[in-house]
Design goal:
Shape: globular
Helix content: 25-40%
Bound molecules: S-adenosylmethionine
Number of domains: 1
Number of helices: 8
CATH superfamily: Vaccinia Virus protein VP39
Largest sheet: 7 strands, mixed
Number of strands: 11
Distance between the termini: 33 Å
Strand content: 15-25%
Order of helices and strands: HHEHEHEEHEEEEHEHEHE
Strand order of the largest sheet: 3-2-1-4-5-11-10
CATH architecture: 3-Layer(aba) Sandwich
Length: 242
């Protein structure tokens, strides 16, 4: 395992909270969209970038992928490895910064890279896209999901940018919405949609498919204003062939 990470491992201090709040469930609309875009993974070499405690990595491995997971938070990787002792799936985990993975991914090659709700946590987007492009095989795909950059938030649910801010002002911020319990603790990087597309394109990744997964059905009653907005975004990209 791993070299020292350069960016802050913010999830180390919320590892128990995160693992308890995000168990191995895959039926919410955002996760379902991500896995649907990933498609069949049986026999593929798959990297889960910013894998946390391995929630998605395990499902990719259960579906037959040869899975690797990297995350900057050592405490989450410890949890992933603990879980692997009870459910052995042959996953290789490493503590590593997605934007500068160094030895962790040296000479690694994948058919598919997946990143579930990790990009807004990663401070160095450009470095992370360079990592994706570098370790994808020709014809490989990158599939990711994020909070929709255009979601303004509503009521007690925080959006992608601060309530007193603007979609057009990018940067790190900390959520205040009382239902945004994770983002109150770890914050997030807000980036415009055009910034994500430029970062992908700058590293030879074509954006092929976008899915705007519907908000949770229970928001119709508990958060009716938020429920009318785009909340989740999932995308499938392919490495441009030269
Ligand atoms: C919202 S969690 C998602 C975790 C996992 N993908 C899941 O779906 O459960 C975001 C993750 O990004 C990780 N992260 C943040 N910055 C990172 C970086 N520079 N390199 C690797 N992982 C990073 C955090 O440690 C955290 O585990």
């Amino acid at each position: 395992m791993a070299q020292a990470a350069q960016s802050p491992a913010r999830y180390d201090s919320v590892a128990d909270f995160y693992a308890a709040g995000f168990p191995d469930r895959y039926d919410d609309s955002a996760t379902a969209a991500l896995l649907d875009l990933a498609g069949p993974v049986d026999g593929l070499d798959v990297l889960d970038l910013a894998c946390g405690h391995g929630r998605i990595t395990r499902e990719l491995a259960r579906r037959g992928g040869r899975a690797t997971g990297i995350d900057i938070a050592g405490r989450l990787i410890e949890k992933a490895e603990d879980l692997q002792r009870t459910e052995p799936l042959g996953i290789a985990y490493a503590v590593s910064d997605a934007s500068a993975p160094g030895d962790a991914l040296r000479d690694a090659a994948f058919d598919l890279v997946v990143c579930c709700f990790g990009l807004s946590d990663i401070d160095g987007l450009d470095g992370a896209m360079a990592t994706v492009a570098r370790c994808l095989r020709p014809g490989g795909r990158f599939v990711f999901s994020i909070l929709h950059p255009c979601f303004p938030g509503a009521g007690d649910i925080s959006g992608s940018w601060p309530p007193d801010g603007s979609y057009f002002h990018e940067g790190r911020w900390t959520a205040v919405g009382s239902r945004s319990t994770l983002r109150q603790q770890v914050g997030a990087n807000h980036r415009m949609l055009s910034t994500y597309v430029a970062a992908l394109s700058g590293h030879g990744l074509n954006l092929d498919v976008l899915r705007e997964a519907t908000p949770p059905a229970e928001w119709e009653t508990s958060a009716p204003v938020a429920a009318r907005h785009p909340v989740f975004l999932a995308a499938s990209c392919s490495l441009r062939q030269h």
